[in-house]
Amino acid sequence: MHLPMWLLADATPLPTPSMTVDPQVVSPGFIGFVGIAFLAVVVVFLLVDMLRRIRRAGYRADIVEELDAEEQAAAAAEAEAPQRPADEPPTQAPPAKG
What we know:
It is a single chain. By secondary structure, the chain is mainly alpha-helical. Helices cover 64% and strands 0% of the residues. The chain is rod-shaped. 0% of the residues are buried.
């Protein structure tokens, strides 16, 4: 007759882990804290700078779009204007009476 495996598993004790290293020796200590704090400050400054540059690039793109729209509107207005012959002088408004 076979005994169930759970009976055999309960009979053998599991080893408990023991501390082999002093926790004070392997902790980062004050120098580790200062290093991580310095990295955190640098990352914050880099994020602020990156956001500023992205915002500036967005403003420049908006200005370029506006200038392109103005150029297209001017070209469309010029295309719609009646063409005068090249040998005809431009018309001038009559002199103002004053």
